[in-house]
């Protein structure tokens, strides 16, 4: 949890706490101090994606191959210094952070509305000052880093906590947020503020964080400013508040009674535990705090999602092989069956391991090997952040609504019981026009149309043989109402088949350019995440790598092709005279007979793919 304004404060008031570093020197010193430990830096990836995305075009969906090159160069910088990286991504939105998450989404909506207004007025991409992340960038960054051989972790609770816990447990060199050449010293910061290290959690809470809202602290800040007014008239209000709060904290004893006194003094409303919980959120496993005695702690390493499992098939939540309990699996970390492993750790196909789906889903979630499945199976809840969508363009629904029918089928595949087919509803926190996010949408799963019924998860995830592979593929297609096109799709290369699935599902009729192309680019990229979810639920009929945007999409080229398609360019020009591209297009039209070849919406999108990567 960051402290608003602290980075600027350090630069202005105590620049000695911010040091330029040499990665090779740091790594060498770490090897000397810890000869048995490889130098490792833990990367808070969510705070870095904005800095990583440097390709020229970003409004039309992203230049994914260029972005992949940026990530490769980033990794090589550390590899050259002998440093390994471990990347952490937020995997859940904890309930205590829900209000803050909603607040940020609403702020992002305003930024996106301003972006579209600029595009409509100037008909060009704005400068970096209005930069908004390409849709689904964090999701595909996870998979990109995995494809580049990096250890990538999707968290079970707030990423800040797990990043710090990993760094402490593995004696890592440090934690990387934004700038790879700058290191912040806690000791120097404390010295400048007149604090000690033990003060920092309280300091963070009293300046406002994701647990303790700033609006509850205004009165306290005023009191601190009265006691310790700013000595420098050039300081802004935030800088003055930081200094005044530090002065206040430095004068109170590090005791639980001091924390209780603050809780009584602050206007925390009905929840007097806010400050306590905020402090506790900074405590890592094994750490003690003078502010919170052990008997007053309510500490839990993980957020307890497993305790409220949504799946109705009770056998799924029992051990299906050997006599181990779920407790044994969790505590002893017994080997887990891997979907794409094909053989167990002994190199045979007998699989004498635990086949426990929640554990498998959890492990795949942590290792970034599936998309959204654990969140749905464990507590029936799913979030989707902002997309670059124009709320003023009422002819194109938001991607959340476009892909909802597909998600309903995916939820059914994951949650349906083998008895009466009843499913619990799924709570969706999806950003779209008209949704105030005051409460989740309650989405009822809908069975896909599959002859003989939907295969259960044990079949889709664990069974072997050609018939099962066919079931996985047909179940995936049924989520998008394409089960009748299975033979035609299987004749195509996997990335082409996946993209054709997406286009057939969409098939939007478009009449304008520019801002609408931006909107459509976001819809397409978000559609790829829906393919990822369906693929994960259905036991991976496709390789996840075949569903990545750098295999099928380039935002800058998409804009060019989109504009050409609306200037009545010929099909030959859109396909750039490439015969193989035309053959692939004909394959698509063959199984989607009601889409004529002269539909330039379709051909423009397909030609963008074919001409980009063939």
From TrEMBL:
<protein>
    <submittedName>
        <fullName>Family with sequence similarity 120 member B</fullName>
    </submittedName>
</protein>
<dbReference type="GO" id="GO:0045444">
    <property type="term" value="P:fat cell differentiation"/>
</dbReference>
<comment type="similarity">
    <text>Belongs to the constitutive coactivator of PPAR-gamma family.</text>
</comment>
<dbReference type="InterPro" id="IPR029060">
    <property type="entry name" value="PIN-like_dom_sf"/>
</dbReference>
<dbReference type="GO" id="GO:0035357">
    <property type="term" value="P:peroxisome proliferator activated receptor signaling pathway"/>
</dbReference>
<dbReference type="GO" id="GO:0005634">
    <property type="term" value="C:nucleus"/>
</dbReference>
<dbReference type="InterPro" id="IPR026784">
    <property type="entry name" value="Coact_PPARg"/>
</dbReference>
